[in-house]
Input
Amino acid sequence: MSDSLSHAIQLHQQGFLPQAREAYLAILAAESRNADAHQFLGMLEHQAGRAETALRHFETAVSLDPGKGFYHVNFGNLLKDLGRPQEAEAAYRRALEIHPGDAIALHNLGHLYQKWSRWPEAREALEAATRVDPGFLEAWSKLAAVNLRIDNATAAMEASNRVIALDPNHASGWFHKADALGRQEKWQESRLEQTSNN
Output
């Protein structure tokens, strides 16, 4: 990675988005086929709400260097936000072909399925994400929610307990646990869980 790209990424990470954007554009003016610059500029444009501009840069990045899994993950994130679920799914699947153990790709795929009410597939992807990364709090939280949607209170309880173990102040962990207890007709315990989080 060049010094100029490292500097642009540093500006981006520090929240100096206009300066980072100019730095990425300067790199591309000198080297239009720099896949990394297209990728990071796509991320910045997505972050800034310029979806169509982001789309062009992500498409260019994956075309120039299709072997980088995280390019496809970020491309999938944008496609998901644009309401293009089939293309987003394909992007996440491509990322997983490159890196089968990519916990973020698995999580994001699970979230896509969750968003479109494909509950069994959401559960499968999120379970896989937690196997790869047992400390992935958001994957556990989404897994708890999905298990509640398919009326598996026991599995929802297990996932909620993992969320709480990772972060005792995570509100959704307590909420999902209380919901699971209620579905198991453990009403007193459910009320206590709700009270303890207030």
About this structure: Residues 17-30 form the longest helix (14 residues). The chain is about 80% helix and 0% strand. The mean pLDDT is 93. The radius of gyration is 20 Å.
